[in-house]
Amino acid sequence: MQERCKIIKRKTYLCNNNNPTDMKKILFIIGSLRKQSFNRELSEMVRDMLKGRAEVTELDYSQVPFINQDDEYPAPQAVAEARKAVAEADGVWIFTPEYNYSYPGRVKNLIDWLSRPVDPADRNAPTVLKGKKFTLTGAGGKGATAGCRKLLTTLLTVLKANVMTEGQTGIALNIEAWTEGRMILTEEQKAQLAKQAEIFLAFVEDE
């Protein structure tokens, strides 16, 4: 049967042959908001790899404000929507560049919001991050975002998320990517991404 694909709410790409309700929900978070982001390109490659196997949604967090406890309750609409998207996902896949050996400030800000309890009357209530399954991928300089991914793994683990440390993919961009604005992966790099997708699907499906 020919595969059918449609775009649904929150940039969701649903591709299925039979029963879409059986597919896991994977939420993509892109660490760079740049329109021509290399990490966005990576996410699009992975989305194609997951066609027919998962329901993929990209989180738009561009309107999430910088965290301020004065504005915490009630949460800003963009924050509430981000929390809802994470809560509904079976797994979260972050694609991020590395800025000064760490993760981008907007990613940290988003995680700070997600780490806060949603009930002002119960400061010990679980957050949407607790137990949530994550995997990380990054394209950057010669370090292939290793420093960023290490720090991000530590941060998410401290916040009680369940981070898949096996099979993370780091891409060291060549000079042509920076000078010509285009990223071309080797067959080995493509295979590494495909392997990460396989491992993450199994990780998410493991109850």
From TrEMBL:
Organism listed in the record: Prevotella lacticifex
GO molecular function: FMN binding; oxidoreductase activity
Classification via InterPro entries: Flavoprotein-like_sf, FMN_Rdtase-like_dom, NAD(P)H-dep_reductase
Domain NADPH-dependent FMN reductase-like: 25-171
One of the Pfam families matching this protein, by short name: FMN_red
Highest taxon listed in the record's lineage: Bacteria
Protein name from the UniProt record: FMN reductase
Gene Ontology CC: cytosol
Record Gene3D superfamilies: 3.40.50.360
